[in-house]
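User: Show me sequence and structure for the first protein, then do the same for the second.

Assistant: Starting with the first protein.
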Amino acid sequence: MESKARYFVILGALSAALAVALGAFGAHALADRLSPGMQAIYRTAVLYHLFHAIGLFAVAFVCSLPKANRLACVSGWLMAAGTGLFCGSLYLLSITGIRWLGAPTPLGGIAMIAAWLLLAWAVLHNN
């Protein structure tokens, strides 16, 4: 496996493990501490975290293609950054209740969307 693909497999696996751990933490340790609205925000963070952890495996696959281009790797880093910004800000918002901590959420969402679009572009131009 090419080294760039390897990084995204490792990053995806670590991200998935963290998402599962944070999901369990939210379901057990925070269940009685968060309002229903904050629980919903927390669950959204876990869901998007898991989807994008799996997305990093898709990035690794595309990066391992014989004629993989640089765009695939850029999409992976955007996906990782988007996950940190989007999910991280939602985790913090839901746990602390401090509304301004949700400010980076849209930036993370934009990075996630851009990552998926860039990944599609990379595959379309892999010839």
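Switching to the second protein now.
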Amino acid sequence: MTRLVLDSGGVSRLARRSQDAAALITVFVRQGIWPPVVSTVVLVECLSGRPQHDAVTNRFLKTCDVVDEVPEHLARRAGILRAAAQRGSAVDALIVAIAEPSGSVLTGDIGDLRALAAHAADVSVIRA
């Protein structure tokens, strides 16, 4: 199953109210990978707790499939990916594990995510 998973860079890019973000969302809709999946662990990196600052992001998140649990098997898989890549944060590794198999990750952290995806089952990484 192909799916689009967003890290904080992906959320930030698509949450912008810009023609570029709208065009990218249109492409994802046409590809059948919309709405994207966003893990609640990503919210730690993309929300500040300041209502004015977070308003645009919160509005965007309402269009996403926000996953609020990290099952043990995903946490274990993320640990394996992180150990194999020898780089990336725990959140990065979890994002790649969620995208498995055959998913795509939209990120601003292309290096770490590509290193993790190199050890994953058919996960592609797209620059945000």
